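Annex B.
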Amino acid sequence: MGIITINASEILSIVSPKSLESYDLNEITLYENDLELILDACNYIRSWPQKVLACRMLNKIIIDNPSFISNKLHIIIPVITPLVYDSKLNVHSQALQTLKELYSTIYNKDIHPFIPYLLAALEDPNKVPDTIHHLSAIVFVQEVRTPALSILVPLLLRGLFEKQTAIKRKCCIICENMCKLVDDPADVRVFLPQLTPLILHIMEEVADPECRQVATRAYHVLQKMIDAEKNRQIYTTIKEDGEILCECQFSLAYGAKILLNRTQLKLMKGGRYGICGSNGCGKSTLMKAIVNDQVDGFPPSDVLKRIYVEHDIDGNIADIPVREFIGNTEIALKALREVGFDEDRLNKAIGSLSGGWKMKLALARAMMQNPDILLLDEPTNHLDVSNVEWLQNYLVEIAGQTGVTCLIVSHDSGFLDTVCTHIIHYEGLKLCTYRGNLAKFVEQHPEALSYYELSATPIKFKLTEPGFLEGVKTKDKAILKMHQASFSYNGKAPYIINNASVYISLSSRVGCIGPNGAGKSTLIKMLTGESEPTIGKIWRHPNLRIAYVAQHAFHHIEQHLDKTANEYIRWRYATGEDREAEDKVYRKITDDEREKLEAKLTIRGVKRQFEKIVSRKKLRKSYEYEIKWIGIEDTSYLERDELIDLGFEKYVNECDMREASALGLMLKPLTQVNVEKHLADLGMDSEIATHNRISGYSGGQKVRLVIGAATWMNPHIIILDEPSNYLDRDSLGAFSAALKEYGGGIVIISHNREFIQSICSEIWTVGDGNIVIEGNNNVMNKEKVEFIIQEDTTIDAFGNTIKVIGTQKTKLSNKEKKNRDRVRKARRDRGEEVTDSEDD
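ABC transporter domain-containing protein: predicted structure tokens.
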């Protein structure tokens, strides 16, 4: 390292701040052997000038020999970190700067984006829990060695001391998974004496039994690492002719979940690879890691150009014309015309394009950049049959003409059969590559039959049964009706939906089909109340509860990515109503309605001004509502039809929604345990649902969450807009079976004909503004409604287990009816309020 101009031992002789100025470290060359003396100068008994100069000297060694420092981080960081909390500001500032330089010597690029969070947690201990959550969301694609562990273990040690049980639990999981990612036990052995006692303490002392179970699992993994031998695996690869684009070995993991461990990936030029595996196995994460140059051993992007083709366009550019978005050059326009864009579509805004044209735009833009690899994540989502066929032909054609390699994640078995030359399958934290399309893969693996037959799925889902619906005696009775309704965005003809009449009952099994842009989603939004018809009426049963999962389902949860699924559902229903339903059009008060509020009304000869609806009660086959008037102490009752005629329909709807929500939540306390059980019925285990944030979920896990949240209140109708997007084949099969068993009405929009045919007996074909209804619309179905008696146990807010018996109807004998009528008459004679409900 050159000639020594100063001995490091002189640091120990510095006693005054002025001495610091006499040392120009640019002129100093230090030996590696001086590290021990420098660290000794950082001891708490030393003077603050000694500590400052020691840190500066350490910075000098980092510049001269970063690899040496990187390998010594496990020794250096425990000494420098306490200086951050030194009472002397000079020491604090210098120590932070030195730690930042020390962290920069780590060659694991996965950790670099995490360093600012780590430094912030050092300065403010209150940020440790959030930093632990950030750590659990890091995608690890490079091997985890001692330098990386040197900066992560101190954070984990602080996390294990946190008061929150959830943070202790998360740290145990990260410790367990980190050990599994380490290939050489020697890399982690130095940290085991620090971690093991704390995890053992949690295993024995924490009150939460589930946390103790996680700690026990982590403890056993740590114990195995002590005596583990280096695991060397012999890999076998498929021998193929042609040009190899890449051949690499890597790992892929979140801090809280291992996805791939030291697996191989080999790609051939011109190959079309379908990536298959269950929801949450890491398919999309792998694609993003490849695009972001994070995969260890994968050729860098300046050597091997790759383009990620997204299936949807960012909402921020929805108003930009196509011509402006792609660039108004001859090359760009030629690329667009090759995929079918005419002058009219070139001038349209991107947001006005259907799903098929958006995919064509994205592909044209990608191919303009002459990529070596195209990465397509669920490219058939939101595409109708004709556009899927076009996409299949296009990918086969361009691969043959240009030699571009395609990596495709899709749950569309027909699409993978037509396009793919290879299948890459996730198996036991490894990637296994098979020649041929999906059909060839299933021949070799019969257990994967669920890719073709939805009924062959090995997993099961369960949907909550609909609750009691007053006055509905048979399943064919309409509970939601649209009569001669038309809709257009500008309120004028031509109409997207024109003069349509449909109805839905508890027995409805409706499949809604049609080309992209035909108006299917518009129809559904009118039925659910997200928009109102321009002409016509929509009637809903006053107590009707609808679960609606939109086409772009993730908009429900985009503002809650820092919550877990369990926390999100408890937030959504914490007020006793569905917070996501507050923006329904039929509940919003217009200016005209507000004017009617302020007007004086003559009710039974007295002028009054409306204030609010207090409650409602049953009145024969309808309801009457208790009204509070401004400036009048006494309330009065008005019938539903009378209130609607007076212009208060929105307030009536608001009251009905409130009452329907209360009925849906009556027998299901909103507790963590109950929500956990509800999500488990949809295939989300407690590890994902209760202990992982939504930001780290896969597309399939987010869809399960949205479905689970929408069905929490025991809905009478489930409306699903493209539910097959993002769900893997096993989940889709399980969901299909659950919908068949469900006791309420179902409406499904989907381009997946197999999914619709497995469930629906009635088809609504939407096109040219019309709705053509085919199949069994259950007109002759007079099956009596039998609301299933759900004998179950539930957990109240205090943790007590309660046996719950659902609603059941009791048929009275003639003698009992006479006695009931006699009691009612006596109550009326006494002046008590008695309803005439036949269900009372």
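Residues 244-313+353-449 form a domain with the Rossmann fold fold (CATH 3.40.50.300). Residues 209-227 form the longest helix (19 residues). Further annotation is deferred to the next reporting cycle.
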